[in-house]
Amino acid sequence: MADVSIRDLRNRGGEIVDRARRGEAITITRSGKPVARLEPVRPAPLSAAALLERRRHLPALDPDALRADVDAILDPRP
């Protein structure tokens, strides 16, 4: 976790918010003492209905073709 002064937050706010968006938790300090914390917002988990709806739009999977592709990548010998 990084510490950032209020002055740095004011001067480089966009950069600091980008760091938080990428996953870094940042403590905001005033006169060297922590006063606030900036951290990324976690997306809400998807409901079962939303996951099922997404699944309906996925292409069909051929397990034999998938296995052949993986085998060809891992062991390219004929």
Q: How does this model look, in words?
A:
- This protein is of the alpha+beta class and 78 residues long.
- It has a domain at 2-38.
- It is built from 4 helices and 3 strands, in the order E-H-H-E-E-H-H.
- It has helices at residues 6-11, 13-21, 48-56, 63-74, and strands spanning 2-5, 26-30, 33-38.
- Strands 1-2-3 form a 3-stranded mixed beta sheet.
- The longest helix has 12 residues, at 63-74.
- The protein is elongated, with a radius of gyration of 23 Å.
How would you describe this structure in keywords?
78 residues, alpha+beta, 4 helices, 19% strand
Quote the distance from N terminus to C terminus: 51 Å
Helix-strand string = EHHEEHH
Got a strand count? 3
Main-sheet strand order equals: 1-2-3
How would you state the average pLDDT, rounded? Answer: 92
- CA-based gyration radius: 23 Å
| H/I helix tally | 4
**Would you identify the regions where 5 or more consecutive residues have pLDDT less than 50?**
none
Strand content: 15-25%
Q: Secondary-structure map with pairings?
A:
Blueprint: E1 2-5, H1 6-11, H2 13-21, E2 26-30, E3 33-38, H3 48-56, H4 63-74
Parallel strand pairs: 1-2
Antiparallel strand pairs: 2-3
